[in-house]
Amino acid sequence: MIPSLTRPSSLRINRPIVLVGLMGVGKTTVGRRLASKLRVPFYDADEEIEKAANMRISEFFETYGEPAFRDGERKVIERLLSGPPHVLATGGGAFMNDETRALVKEKAISVWLRADLDLLVKRTALRNTRPLLQNGDPREILENLLKERAPTYAKADLAVDSMEGPHNRTVDRILKKLAVFQRRGSNK
Ligand SMILES: Nc1ncnc2c1ncn2[C@@H]1O[C@H](COP(=O)(O)OP(=O)(O)OP(=O)(O)O)[C@@H](O)[C@H]1O
Ligand SMILES: O=C(O)C1=C[C@@H](O)[C@@H](O)[C@H](O)C1
Ligand SMILES: [Mg+2]
Question: Where Mg(2+) is bound, by residue (predicted)?
């Protein structure tokens, strides 16, 4: 028997699926697995920006600053969303940009991945390449970002918890909500 980890989903998506949410919530890891189950390509906006600019995100922030990064991020997301259905993991701040969010709302199904503060602190501690967490106490920064950004993330079409446990449990929760959303048009 094919293990459930790799068993494809019977769901057919007709629009890109865009994952939004804070740093460390699992957009990249969960997104990659979701795409594989849906048998569609996976893209990570942060990786695409790094490829286009030929530098790491942290270097981009240092060289050009955050407003230029947000502009590049919007362009990269616009290019990706004009292609066929796929799963796209966005950078943690992408959905905060009004133009980027309007684009995502128009062209894709957006999914807010949620986790509590403790888990975000634990997961982001595994990698220290996130420029916004470099200057100060990561817990305090994440707590403030969570407060500030949650009302905007809540504008996504769906919200799914990405809590402790196997990644695939989160993937399966997304697939279930997507199936209902596609059938009914909306299901928060
Ligand atoms: N559902 C999950 N269960 C357990 N661990 C997870 C889960 N999702 C992600 N992780 C772990 O948390 C870490 C951060 O995940 P990931 O890099 O996918 O987050 P991200 O949302 O893409 O962050 P960023 O916005 O900084 O790119 C990884 O080490 C990953 O393995
Ligand atoms: O939350 C944010 O604003 C960011 C998250 C990362 O994915 C990167 O896009 C960048 O470090 C900014
Ligand atoms: Mg990521």
Answer: 28
Instruction: Report pLDDT digits (tens) over 116-171.
Output: 999 999 999 988 788 889 889 999 999 999 999 999 999 999 999 998 888 999 99
- Summarize pLDDT for 15-57 with one digit per residue, the tens: 999 999 999 999 999 999 999 999 999 999 999 999 999 999 9
Among the bound ligands, the one closest to the CA of 29: 1
* ipTM of this complex: 0.94
| HEC letters along 85-121 | CCEEECCCCHHHCHHHHHHHHHHCEEEEEECCHHHHH
Model pTM? 0.94
- Ligand 1, CB within 6 Å, residue ranges: 23-30, 46, 89, 91-92, 123, 126, 130, 162, 165, 167, 170
The closest alpha carbon to 142, from 160, 112, 120, belongs to 120
Residues 165-188 have a mean pLDDT of 86
Q: For ligand 3, a single-atom ion, which residues have Cβ within 5 Å?
A: 27-28
| Angle in degrees, 0-180, between the axes of helices 66-81 and 45-53, rounded to the nearest 10 | 110
- Ligand 1 atom 1, closest CA: 167
DSSP-derived 3-state class of residue 2 = coil
Residue ranges of domains in the chain, CATH in brackets: 17-183 (3.40.50.300)
